[in-house]
Amino acid sequence: MEPYAKTQGVDMKDFDIGIIGSGPGGYRAAVLAALRGQKVAIIERATWGGTCLNRGCVPKKDWHESAKWIEQSQHFEQRGIVGSPLRGDLGRAWKHQHEVVNTVRQSYLDYLKRLGVRMLEGSAQFIGRHELQIDTAEGQTQIHCDKIIIATGSRPALPPGIETVAHRILHSDELFDTDVPEGKRVIIVGGGIIGTEFAYIFTMLGRQVTWLVHSEPLSHTRYSEQAKDALRDALAALKIEAQSGFVLKKVGIRGDLAWVEGADGQRHEADWVLLATGRHPQTQGLGLEHTAVRRDERGFIVTDAGLETDEPGVYAIGDVVGPLMNANQALADATLVVDRILGKSEARREPLWVPELVYSALELARIGMDEEQAEDADLEPAVGFAAFETSPRALGQDDAAGFVRLLADMDSGAFLGGEIVGRDAGELIHLLAQGSDRDTVLRQWISARYNHPARAEEVLNATETLAARWGLGDFLYGES
Ligand SMILES: Cc1cc2nc3c(=O)[nH]c(=O)nc-3n(C[C@H](O)[C@H](O)[C@H](O)COP(=O)(O)OP(=O)(O)OC[C@H]3O[C@@H](n4cnc5c(N)ncnc54)[C@H](O)[C@@H]3O)c2cc1C
Ligand SMILES: NC(=O)c1ccc[n+]([C@@H]2O[C@H](COP(=O)([O-])OP(=O)(O)OC[C@H]3O[C@@H](n4cnc5c(N)ncnc54)[C@H](O)[C@@H]3O)[C@@H](O)[C@H]2O)c1
């Protein structure tokens, strides 16, 4: 790819804002700051667009779409769509995501260029509190920035002593950086979000998956038991089951086969292996010792609620701050930090109100508190519920698994949190994310106009059950 700006000749230029990393956090911060008249430099040492665009959300959702179509094709004949049977081809799916990713990346770069953002290719490190040195292919250059945003993201974490082997034993970054391995049999290690998403995607795209997990998939997440059960059922219907109790200790290659060994000595063999055992914040080589920026014991950068580090004028956003690592958080962080830098807001980071998603045999989406958190906050949560199994739209789509589940405060009728499980949950969650006034938003949902038949109507139905079953009618149908 042609870089738009070489670092040569930039020597010690001044910028209003310097941003390290071009993932969703860094890219969004650059766009927002440039749109508001700031002189912005963004520095990227690897592929423009970061994890989300090149090795995460974007290619994963491209594959998830193909996986869904293959699964849906099981209903084609009964819907009157007939012809030869369809089958998944992960190799071709890899090429498809690659083309999509390249198109998106080019549009990102064009936009940054149009906005006048200075794009510098190389590895950035602090050499002073507000000075960065950038090591490029052509040499070193230095810039001064009034404000600096660290958006350096994360990298795959492997258990102690475990190393990847090219084309055979991979983590997810390597999976997207190189073509997918040929072999049909694949082992996935990890019951986190990546394991849960890829066990489904690979199976639908024609691979035989052995899925090895330590504890129940998604057990470390805040999805309700009902959501996890629904997902387990949907996976089981496709014969995708996690084998629990596996703690990875060793990996290796024997002839044509890759193997993994657990703490109990059990070995599993396959053509190749995907390791999905978490991610670490990425701060190595950043020169943080030249600043007052601190990291916690897990390596995450420590910030205040406005995402400013201990070094005044230096901020950190996205995965490198954690603890949740998703693009939605990185994007929300970028908005918050640019607003604060421009003095437009005193807002505080609110991870609770950033949507979380899982794309597997069902889409799981959630936002806000769960019951436990509500009770810990001395609130009394009422549950509003509507299942897609009676939705005319979902039935017409042959895809009626899942539900909308809302929590409201019994005393005030305030919206506390919600979960949407099933097809298009990743789109529908925006309904739950938009209400700016959570005290009155349920009243808005109950009086809003809906398209019929549509899945979004289940948000209305779930809200109505709060009125009907929990006596919240006075709050929800009251004067607005
Ligand atoms: C397989 C997978 C699927 C995912 N799917 C989803 C999803 O569906 N939805 C979702 O919300 N999230 C998803 N995520 C998570 C999401 O990708 C991350 O949360 C998001 O990319 C974090 O954004 P970021 O801006 O903090 O950092 P990143 O996207 O990691 O970008 C950081 C960038 O900084 C650069 N960098 C680091 N150090 C330096 C340096 N010293 N100098 C210059 N550049 C540097 C890196 O090269 C990188 O390009 C997924 C992740 C994975 C791995
Ligand atoms: N849709 C999304 O938002 C999305 C999608 C994919 C990834 N991500 C983010 O990317 C990050 C990485 O995802 P992930 O699934 O790798 O991490 P994760 O933290 O979600 O899960 C890691 C899993 O690895 C397991 N594990 C760790 N060491 C192990 C060992 N030695 N043996 C067996 N199992 C072991 C853990 O038990 C856990 O189930 C996460 O923070 C996730 O939130 C987000």
From TrEMBL:
Binds 1 FAD per subunit. Residues 16-333 form the FAD/NAD(P)-binding domain. Residues 354-461 form the Pyridine nucleotide-disulphide oxidoreductase dimerisation domain. The active site is at residue 452. It comes from the Bacteria. FAD binds at residues 61, 152-154, 319. Disulfide bonds join 52-57. Its cofactor is FAD. PANTHER family: DIHYDROLIPOYL DEHYDROGENASE, DISULFIDE OXIDOREDUCTASE. This is Dihydrolipoyl dehydrogenase. It comes from Acidithiobacillus caldus.
